[in-house]
Amino acid sequence: MHFVEVILPLSLAKTFTYSVSEAEHNYIQKGMRVAVPFGKSKIYTALVIEIHENKPSLYEAREIHQILDEKPIVNEIQIAHWQWIASYYMCAIGDVYRGAMPSALLLESETIISQKQDGFVDESLLSDDEFLIYQALQQQSSLKVQDIVNILNKKNIFPVIQKLMDKNILVLQEEMLETYTPKLIRYVKLHAKYETNEGLGELLEVLKNANKQKEIVLSYFQLSASEKKPITVKKLIESAKSTSTIVKALIDKEIFEEYYIQTDRVHFSGKTKEEQLQLSSAQQSTLEEIKQSFVQKDVCLLHGVTSSGKTEIYIKLIEQYIKEEKQILYLLPEIALTTQLVGRLRDYFGNKVAVFHSKYSNNERVEVWKQVLEQSPKAQIVIGARSALFLPFSNLGLVVVDEEHEQTFKQVDPSPRYHARDASIVLANIHQAKVVLGSATPSIETYFNAQSGKYGLVEITKRYGNVKMPEIELVDLKDKYFRKKMSGHFSDTLIEEIANALSLGEQVILFQNRRGYSPIIECLTCGHVPQCPQCDVSLTFHKHKNQLRCHYCGYSMAKPTNCHACTSVHLTTKGFGTEQIQQELIELFPNAKIGRMDQDTTRGKFGFEKIIDSFKNREVEILVGTQMLAKGLDFDNVSLVGIMNADNMLYHPDFRAFERSYQMMTQVSGRSGRSEKQGKVIIQTYNPEHNTIQQVVHNNYIGMYKEQLYERQIYKYPPYFKLIKLTLKHRDFDKLKEGSMWLYQVMQQNFTIPVLGPEEPPISRIRNEYIRTIMVKIPTNQSLQGTKKTIQKILNSFDLVSQYRAIKVSVNVDFY
Ligand code: ADP
Ligand code: ZN
Ligand code: ZN
């Protein structure tokens, strides 16, 4: 008898044993997927991690349905890494497997599939089985995989479905929900052959008898001379008072070339930058120091001020690993940042750059997965958000974690709740690869690790091209309000500086922290504020849709015309979100072009890119936005950054509030003055003397670090203590209260280390579930592994108490 040990894509910590036939045994390898029955009637895609002869003692092993791969698609390094994640972050290996793989590779009987909307299907190319499925989907818009099992009357159907997905005929239902279709902007440029002087003469000759076309070409020259930026077809037609037919004629004649704003899927033309990248001497010595540090240490922190040219240093470093034929993983905190970066990296590495993140379609993700698996040169460098670290690397040489301080590297939900920076360091270790962590404002934990010698530390304190750090001016809001110098949320100082920047043709960024400042509706008669019926929060007012919405569960309603509590019609809006800032700006600067970047305006696959591009192309003069603005964007024409209100970041009840405020303000400020001219930053605050604000003004990272480190030690927080946070949820308030008390008390009795709680969090009910949290603080001199074991034991016994079984408990190790 032959058996395989498999991981199921379910929240189960155990692996399961299935039996395989002699023939299957001869074929099967670790890392292949198999379709297996589970429970009464479910089918799942499981992963083989062991082949053995040990009959399970507790249950009768069932047979697998079918082997799904010809070659392993997951390697042993990955499996080892996933096991580490499961153990360190206290989650099921099944959760890691499920989170790691593109869902198209994890078909199961409950998966819902649909026909792709736009594709043309040549029915004659379909096999009989394929045709049956295709036909069934003409009758119904979607099918469960289980339905297909019934239609074809056989169990082994995953490969057929997979084929139809590869052929782009089927898609998973989850993708269908992403209905957004990107609108790309069309640009034109003159064909390269006409760029020279002789070319120009030739061009005029060609157009001698085509007046309309000539007009448009002349307009093109005028525009490109005056604007010095890419020219959209729309603009060209407007300024020449022409039509798109004429533009098309010129494209057909190969006088113009059309192109679309580069997205990260656009294929690179194949030409790498001719002039080699020249590092400044500061960059060059930094690069040498990093290499030097790699001799002794595997991880190096690159602490470089904003705009010091860290990306170029990474590029040079990557070059070395490319030569050694190693794979490179480049992690970014925000997928939206990939477009800019991919453009920059493709300039140097051509088609060696692949991108992987969750906004990609399944087919695209599967494609990158396979390229990495085969060590294809097309994916030698992979840029991605955190999930890219699950790809099947077999020969990783270097990991770059850019903006390592960003909290988005930590996955919150669902499990696995891993930190991509930390998990990638472990991954690199298995590969014996090197890691460079980059930031202008490193996290306290990372800087601590560098100070204590665990990581190498390399600093670069000058901006590239000797651009000066921006000048930061504080505006005291108390004083401004007292002296009536405020218009809405704008001080006279800020208004003046904006006007000044605009008059010089420079751009402005205004930053409004998202937290707690969403606008709400309040009744002036009775003070009632509409609440979400399912969550413990006020509904947020969205002006342009005239809607109230819950940011936690998505509940929405039309804005009421009268108060639901007292029927009064006197309602007012309170709070000050980005939308309100934008409104005020429109009144203050009626002629300025104003853009907004927040969660609302950046939905969809290219939402963020569109806003960034229009700002880069100077179609937008003032950009108002939330935290998204703080993340490593590079604009060369921004001379002013305004922080609307520094205080709402500072006074957030979180031990990282001051660290984050420092990071956010410094990062946003760093968007100002990235070319020759010194930029300016205005920070509006009620507390100009606050230590953190003073540290921002004086660019005093070390001061911030020391102060925060001191506090962390006193109040028992990282890096001196590891945090494990337990979150309990249940619909019944009393049961939850009892259950969390039980859990807390058992922990108290078992530990001498601090256990805090059970606490009602500020938002104590979401989607009708009440929430309580318990925090465990583990000093670094105590065994983390041992403590986790005890916690797990306690959780197991909690699970055995019948009245608490329905309470959901989630564990967050290294709570961020
Ligand atoms: P950081 O990531 O440190 O904030 P960037 O890498 O974005 O800084 O660099 C800031 C700007 O300086 C970018 O526009 C970049 O293209 C430019 N730059 C940096 N180093 C060089 C170099 N060696 N040659 C040319 N341009 C450079
Ligand atoms: Zn009322
Ligand atoms: Zn809600």
UniProtKB/TrEMBL annotation:
> What is the official name of this protein in its record?
Replication restart protein PriA
Q: Which SMART domains match?
A: DEXDc (SM00487), HELICc (SM00490)
Function recorded in the entry: Initiates the restart of stalled replication forks, which reloads the replicative helicase on sites other than the origin of replication. Recognizes and binds to abandoned replication forks and remodels them to uncover a helicase loading site. Promotes assembly of the primosome at these replication forks.
Cofactor list = Zn(2+)
- One GO term describing the cellular component: primosome complex
Q: Which organism is it from?
A: Flavobacterium nackdongense
What InterPro entries does the record tag this protein with?
Answer: DEAD/DEAH_box_helicase_dom, Helicase_ATP-bd, Helicase_C-like, P-loop_NTPase, PriA, PriA_3primeBD, PriA_3primeBD_sf, PriA_C
Member of which family? Belongs to the helicase family. PriA subfamily.
Return the PROSITE patterns for the record. Answer: HELICASE_ATP_BIND_1 (PS51192), HELICASE_CTER (PS51194)
Domain (Helicase C-terminal) ranges? 536-713
Provide the reaction this enzyme catalyses: Couples ATP hydrolysis with the unwinding of duplex DNA by translocating in the 3'-5' direction; ATP + H2O = ADP + phosphate + H(+)
Whichever gene encodes this chain, its name is: priA
Write out the residues that bind Zn(2+) 1: C523, C526, C563, C566
Q: Which NCBIfam families match?
A: priA (TIGR00595)
Q: Which residues bind Zn(2+) 2?
A: C532, C535, C550, C553
EC number(s) stated in the UniProt entry for this protein: 5.6.2.4
Domain Helicase ATP-binding per the UniProt entry, residue ranges? 291-460
**Do you know which CDD domains this protein is assigned to?**
DEXHc_priA (cd17929), SF2_C_priA (cd18804)
- Subunit organization: Component of the replication restart primosome.
The biological process GO terms on file are: DNA recombination; DNA replication initiation; DNA replication, synthesis of primer; double-strand break repair
Which EC class is this protein assigned? isomerase
Which Pfam families does the protein's record reference? DEAD, Helicase_C, PriA_3primeBD, PriA_C, Zn_ribbon_PriA
